Amino acid sequence: MNIQNVNHLVHAYKVAPWRVQRQWIGTVLIVVIALAMISAIFLDVSSRTALAGREILALTASISTSQKNSGDLQTQLALLTSASVMEQRAQDLGFHAVETADMEYVIVPGYTAPSPKILSSSSVPQLSALSIPPEYNESLFEWLDKKLASSTRGQ
Fold first, then answer.
1. 3-class SS at 73?
2. pLDDT digits (tens, 9 = 90+) for 40-72
3. Among the listed ranges 111-115, 128-132, 151-155, which one has the minimum average pLDDT value?
4. Are the C-beta atoms of 137 and 129 separated by less than 8 Å?
5. Given pLDDT bands bounded at 50, 70 and 90, which one contains residue 113?
6. Residue among 121, 146, 126, 123 at smallest CA distance from 134
7. Where are the domains of the chain?
8. CB of 56 within 8 A of CB of 49?
């Protein structure tokens, strides 16, 4: 640049100083708008995170309440089905303990009691090397050797 061009620019800015002010104001406005947009995004993310945290706290409290209620109900059920309470309820309904003299046995013709299944070594089928297919008796190296031998014969 020569001196004349520089003098021309300096003269142009002296004649119209509002141009420089307008450039500075534009730059400042762009920075302010960018900061406002970043702040808005940050606030949006923060508010969503806070709402999710509140929902988690509410659900955790609900789970805790449900677990307490379940524990209370299990305790009530245990109390209601305890032996002493069940015996009292049966007596209130008119039942009494059976005596051996009051028992009657009924013989059913043709009925045989099922025999228990006893597992012994004779009932479990024994596997021998002869009953296992040969594919399951060879090692990986033997199988690989067979495959390599058959591929070299095939060529």
1. helix
2. 999 999 999 999 999 999 999 999 999 999 999
3. 128-132
4. yes
5. confident
6. 146
7. 3-90
8. no
For residue 152, give the amino acid letter. Answer: T
79 in Cβ contact with 85 (< 8 Å): yes
CA distance 151 to 35: 71
For 120, the token pair is: 């012994």
Tokens describing residue 36:
């406002």
The amino acid sitting at 40 is A
30 close to 24: Cβ distance less than 8 angstroms: no
* Integer CA distances (angstroms), 64 to 12, 34, 55, 68, 94, in order: 76, 45, 14, 6, 42
Q: What is the DSSP string of 93-155?
A: TT--PPPGGG----PPTT--PPPP----TTTSPPP-TTTS-GGGTS-HHHHHHHHHHHHHHH-
Tokens linked to 22:
């307008």
